[in-house]
Design brief:
The protein has about 220 residues and is an all-alpha fold. Helices cover about 65% and strands about 0% of the residues. It folds into 3 domains: about 60 residues, no CATH class; about 45 residues; about 80 residues, Arc Repressor Mutant, subunit A, CATH 1.10.10.60. It is globular, with a radius of gyration of 20 Å.
Length: about 220
């Protein structure tokens, strides 16, 4: 029980226990599966965030109540979330794990998860994927092939890009690119090479285009 509380980053159930030795919780099981798949893809932020969310859900839903001790983040939350967003936007291809993100923001991992969702409407790993998709759109508009776009924006492979891109945009990257290039017409291929290179540089992770002040 103590290990689960520590991993979840919650002190809410420090003195509690699990009355049942076997639990059936489809939602938590799905979250744990997603955490495992994210770890296989090398996505440290998603895997660590999902694991803590799953454990926190287990504690809240199935553990007997202990002594409630939840430290308020108070006025620190907006500034902490701003630090976390800036760190995420600057490291799209190599995002930090949740522990590193929380340490930089000055909050516990669980407190950061709650504050981040409250400020942005998304957990950190989902916010990261929205920024990645936005960068992917910019690179696709330049004519880069989806496989290269996936590598530049931090997705594990083209299939990983396609899954998140379709979830956010509604169509696969290839279809999006064909429609955009067709709408742009002949002028899309007539831009000077220097202009294209400058646009590529602006679209790379860490550029102003991915600044945390921009909301998806």
């Amino acid at each position: 029980m103590t290990t689960a509380s520590r991993l979840a980053g919650s002190r809410q159930h420090r003195a509690g226990r699990f009355p049942d030795t076997v639990l059936y919780d489809a939602r938590t099981a799905a979250t744990l599966r997603a955490a495992h798949l994210s770890a296989e893809h090398g996505d440290r932020l998603a895997s660590s965030s999902l694991l803590r969310s799953a454990l926190a859900t287990l504690l809240s839903a199935h553990a007997t109540p202990g002594a409630v001790r939840r430290r308020s983040t108070g006025r620190r939350a907006p500034a902490a979330v701003a630090v976390a967003r800036e760190l995420i936007s600057g490291r799209l291809a190599d995002p930090p794990a949740l522990d590193e993100l929380a340490a930089a923001a000055g909050l516990s991992p669980f407190a950061l998860l709650r504050a981040f969702r409250a400020e942005t409407g998304l957990p950190p790993h989902a916010y990261l994927n929205h920024l990645r998709v936005r960068q992917a759109r910019a690179l696709l508009d330049l004519g880069l092939v989806p496989a290269e776009v996936a590598a530049r924006t931090g997705f594990a492979d083209q299939a990983h890009l396609t899954r998140h891109f379709k979830r956010v945009v509604g169509v696969p990257p290839g279809s999006y690119q064909r429609e955009r290039l067709a709408a742009a017409g002949p002028m899309a291929s007539a831009r000077p090479a220097s202009a294209i290179q400058r646009a590529k540089a602006r679209a790379l992770p860490g550029s102003r285009a991915g600044s945390p002040a921009s909301r998806w």
